[in-house]
Design a protein that fits this description.
Blueprint: E1 6-12, H1 20-35, E2 38-44, H2 45-48, H3 50-54, H4 63-73, E3 77-83, H5 91-98, E4 109-116, H6 124-135, E5 139-140, E6 145-148, E7 152-153, E8 156-157, H7 160-180, H8 193-196
Helix pairs in contact: 1-7
Bound molecules: flavin mononucleotide.
Length: 205
């Protein structure tokens, strides 16, 4: 059986470029690729354009914004990184995920990360990012990556401790992605076992 190459999609909540968040996500994706044969595509809030913020329903999304939502929904592996704004992910980062189908990320490996001005909000990855992907029944990688301004040189991660966390997250992600495999194509039949176990175990009355 031919197993298709997995698709890594990085989505970042930066509202400007160049962006430390974008660079951190790109680094994580490249390190995953060092351990797993996978394609990689990067999208950010700017790719979605002004049509993202203006939309209140999925039908109102512009084609560019919808394309970003669909790319996230079709990812085999998601790398999700946001700058910290006011102690959390950016509003537009969350707004994008508000349009993502609630079943699209079940059982999908997700590396979470954030960048901030200082160390004070480092737990944003645990207190905001991880619960968001818990909602989606995604498989967040145990090692999350937070990098502050002082961790970067010329907008690239330079702190050896952060680079070590990136590597740990990438190795964990590659191992999990190998075990889980790529997502089944739409309409291809039953979901993979991990997807079947993902959501809504009805409570016995
Ligand atoms: C509107 C705004 C709010 C911010 N709020 C925080 C914050 O609450 N905590 C923090 O550590 N950094 C905060 N920052 C700093 C950014 O998170 C930080 O510079 C980040 O690395 C920028 O990422 P980017 O290069 O991807 O845009 C804020 C920056 C902006 C523009």
């Amino acid at each position: 059986m031919i197993v298709p190459r997995q698709k890594i999609v990085a989505f970042t909540g930066n509202t400007r470029r160049p962006s430390r968040s974008l660079n951190l996500a790109a680094l994580i994706a490249r390190r995953i690729q060092a351990h797993l044969d996978a394609d990689y595509r990067h999208l950010d809030v700017l790719d979605a354009g002004p049509g993202l913020g203006a939309a209140l329903t999925r039908k109102q999304l512009t084609p560019e914004a919808l394309a970003v939502v669909e790319a996230v929904e079709e990812a085999d592996i998601l790398v999700a990184v946001s700058p910290v704004y006011k102690g959390s992910y950016t509003g537009l980062f969350k707004h994008l995920f508000d349009f993502v189908d609630m079943d699209a990320l079940i059982g999908r490996p997700v590396v979470i990360g954030a960048t901030g001005g200082g160390p004070r909000h480092s737990l944003v990855v645990e207190h905001q990012m991880r619960p968001l992907f818990g909602f989606f029944s995604a498989l967040t990688i145990p090692t999350a990556v937070y990098a502050e301004d002082a961790s970067f040189q010329d907008d690239e991660v330079a702190d050896p401790a952060i680079l070590a966390r990136v590597e740990a997250a990438a190795v964990q992600c590659a191992e999990l992605a190998r075990a889980v495999g790529p997502r089944r194509q739409r309409g291809e039949g039953a979901a993979a076992p991990v997807e079947q176990t993902g959501r809504v175990i009805p409570l016995k009355s």
